[in-house]
Specification:
With about 100 residues, this protein is mostly helical. It is built from four helices and no strands.
Length: about 100
Amino acid sequence: MSDFSELKKLAEAAQAFPFADEACEFQALSDFYDGCDPAEVLVLIAENEALTKRLEVDPRHSYDGIATRDATIKVLDEQLDQLKAECEGLRKDAPSSEIIW
């Protein structure tokens, strides 16, 4: 992930309303707009979308982040264990001359 700490700092300063006067408010917003690179914002949006897609298991179910990720890991672990067991069974059943792995 890229470092967006400066952009974050500028955004936090720009939203720190109410300001003491309009000049301070204008300066904070100006600093934010000067430091805000549209390409960086698009990178953040794309990264967020990619991470969200990785966490979502089934579009028919609601997205809830950590619980979804944990459920996905559990299912994948179970599938991996099943595949390992099937593979071991095939190794035992196959004549030793036919095993190529």
